[in-house]
Structures are given as structure tokens and as C-alpha cells.
């Protein structure tokens, strides 16, 4: 039985869910994301941020120059069912299908890593544009991955009526990819993310950017309440499970918090293969 089949089997036993396509993917573990110096703050909202692509590659992030890397191949398979459900197909449309949240039960399972690679992979398609949002207000880290230091973002829009999305979105040197930082953290962050303004903003984003994929790097479901609140607005959720690590009861409990989402995809991250302990991998299946 493959790693994925085992995971699917395990989850089926813990939370009866209809499962569909499975796959197994490999990538090599490289430098951890945390320890990288930040570039100077990008001041003007309209300013384009030029990525240090070599640095991103060192972090095992997909870049346009490495389209045929192992990780790029893996995410090519991972993104396909998500894209299939993001927009209307044969007259069928998932509500807010273009809003996709990446979350997990517990911290450090690979949410930011997978959200970033998913966004990069989709942005490299000719006709797709992606907005990658740092929705992990308690522990924002997305901008560190890209080497951007910025303060304003999502939380600021929710508090300041005079700010527009376009004031805080950062354009990047990858044409189809823009970033929305988490913004200045404050003690009302949870209430802000759960507020009517947030609900309105998300619906507005889904409509106004209906031709765009919007990916949210969210907090862990079992640590803060933000992710489960956000989940109710999402068309699709990618739930990361760290292979051989996330305890089964935690997975089960996390799944109950997002059970109202129409489409939940499970991505098994950091799965070691028999080939080598140096290798990590992804398994992927969805339930609907
Ligand atoms: N498949 C993978 N291959 C290699 N490294 C990985 C993989 N998944 C995650 N990592 C690394 O593991 C660490 C934790 O990943 P990441 O920051 O994405 O987790 P997270 O779930 O977003 O954590 P947090 O809950 O703190 O936000 C990072 O150093 C990241 O680069
Ligand atoms: Mg993270």
C-alpha cells in the first residue's frame, strides 16, 4: 500500500469522507525558510518587488527558471484538481471556488511552504493570475519567504476605510503573481478576521477578482480560531498533514472545523519514501 493509500485509509477510518483521486510526489528537503535576511521595505504600494530567484530556489520554492524541477512537477499535479474547481466548468461553479485556503491542524506542518509553491506553480501558467494572501495574522511568515519587509496589509484594510486593496497589494517580478501581506498585528486581529468587514472583503475579492486564484496562507486550525472562521468563506481548502507526525485525533478534530467547506483537499506533506530518508513528498487526495 502506498503512503497515500495508507493516509487515505487512515483518514477514512477516522473521518468517513468520500475520497477521490490520489497521487504521490517527491521533493528534496533544503534550507529552512526561517533563516533568511529581509530585503529593504517596499514603500510604494505599486512598486514591483523583484524576487531573488536563486534564494527562492534554495528554499525549495518553484521559480520560472526551474519549471522542470521535481517540486514543480509535484505541484503541477497538486494544482490541477484545484484549478478544475476554481472556475465555472460545464455550467457548474463552486461558490467562491477561486478562494483557496491552505491550513493544517497544528503549527509547522508546511502551510506556508505549500501555499507558496501552489501560488508559484499556478502563476507560471500563461493565463492564470494569483493573489497570495498572508492570512496568518498571529504568525505572519509569507513575506519572509519572499524576502520582503512590509507593514501594511490585510489587517490594515479591515481597520482603515480609506485604504483599498490596491494600496497594499505588492506586485512582483513574476507577472501573474501579487502578494497581500498580513498587515500590522494588533490584539483585535481575531475579531477583525471574523468581522462582517472581512466577510464583505472576501466576497468582494471573490467577485472582483473572479478570474484570479486567491490563495490564503492560514493559521493552524487547532491553535487559533481564525482559520475556522476564514474557512466558512472559502470555496476550497487544502489541509496539510505532516506525514508520520500529525496525530490522528488532531486531524479528525481539524476536519470537523472545516466540514462545511464544499471542497477540502488533503495534502500529505514531508512523506519520506523508501528510496531515501533525504526525500520528502506529498500525497494528495480530496474529499467533497
Ligand atoms: N515538503 C517540504 N520540503 C522541504 N521543506 C519543507 C517542506 N514542507 C515544509 N518545509 C519546511 O518546514 C518548515 C515549516 O514549514 P512552514 O513554515 O511552511 O510551516 P507552517 O505550517 O506554515 O508553520 P506555521 O504553523 O508556523 O505557520 C519550513 O522551514 C519549511 O521550509
Ligand atoms: Mg506558516
Can you say what the CATH homologous superfamily is? P-loop containing nucleotide triphosphate hydrolases
**What is the arithmetic mean of pLDDT?**
80
Q: Pairing-aware structural class of the strands and helices?
A: alpha/beta
Helix count, per DSSP? Answer: 11
Describe the sheet with the most strands: 10 strands, mixed
Q: How large is the share of residues in beta strands?
A: 15-25%
Task: Present the secondary structure layout.
Blueprint: H1 3-14, E1 24-28, E2 48-49, H2 53-58, H3 70-86, E3 99-104, H4 111-123, E4 129-134, H5 142-146, H6 154-159, H7 165-168, E5 170-172, E6 177-180, H8 189-193, H9 196-208, E7 212-217, H10 226-231, E8 236-242, H11 248-257, E9 263-269, E10 279-287
Parallel strand pairs: 2-5, 3-7, 3-8, 4-6, 4-7, 8-9
Antiparallel strand pairs: 1-10, 5-6, 9-10
Helix pairs in contact: 3-4
The structure holds adenosine-5'-triphosphate (ATP) and magnesium ion (MG).
Amino acid at each position: 500500500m502506498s503512503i497515500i493509500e495508507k493516509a487515505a485509509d487512515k483518514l477514512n477510518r477516522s473521518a468517513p469522507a468520500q475520497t477521490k483521486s490520489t497521487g504521490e510526489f517527491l521533493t528534496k528537503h533544503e534550507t529552512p525558510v526561517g533563516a533568511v535576511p529581509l530585503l529593504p521595505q517596499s514603500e510604494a504600494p505599486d512598486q514591483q518587488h523583484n524576487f531573488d530567484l536563486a534564494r527562492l530556489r534554495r528554499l525549495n520554492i518553484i521559480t520560472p527558471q526551474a519549471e522542470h524541477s521535481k517540486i514543480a512537477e509535484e505541484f503541477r499535479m497538486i494544482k490541477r484538481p484545484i484549478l478544475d474547481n476554481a472556475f465555472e466548468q460545464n455550467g457548474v461553479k463552486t461558490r467562491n471556488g477561486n478562494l483557496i485556503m491552505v491550513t493544517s491542524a497544528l503549527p509547522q506542518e508546511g502551510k506556508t511552504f505549500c501555499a507558496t509553491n501552489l501560488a508559484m506553480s499556478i502563476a507560471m501558467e500563461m493565463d492564470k493570475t494569483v493573489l497570495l494572501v498572508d492570512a496568518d495574522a498571529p504568525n505572519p511568515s509569507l513575506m519572509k519567504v519572499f524576502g520582503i519587509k512590509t507593514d501594511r496589509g490585510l489587517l490594515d484594510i479591515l481597520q482603515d476605510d480609506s485604504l483599498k486593496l490596491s494600496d497594499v497589494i505588492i506586485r512582483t517580478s513574476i507577472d501573474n503573481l501579487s502578494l497581500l501581506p498580513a498587515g500590522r498585528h494588533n490584539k483585535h486581529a481575531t475579531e477583525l478576521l471574523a468581522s462582517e468587514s472581512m466577510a464583505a472583503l472576501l466576497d468582494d475579492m471573490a467577485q472582483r477578482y473572479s478570474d484570479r486564484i486567491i490563495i490564503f496562507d492560514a493559521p493552524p486550525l487547532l491553535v487559533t480560531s481564525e482559520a475556522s472562521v476564514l474557512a466558512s468563506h472559502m470555496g476550497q481548502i487544502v489541509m496539510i498533514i505532516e506525514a508520520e507526525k500529525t496525530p490522528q485525533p488532531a486531524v479528525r478534530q481539524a476536519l470537523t472545523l472545516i466540514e462545511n467547506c464544499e471542497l477540502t483537499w488533503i495534502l500529505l506533506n514531508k512523506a519520506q519514501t523508501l528510496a531515501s530518508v533525504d526525500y520528502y513528498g506529498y500525497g494528495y487526495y480530496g474529499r467533497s
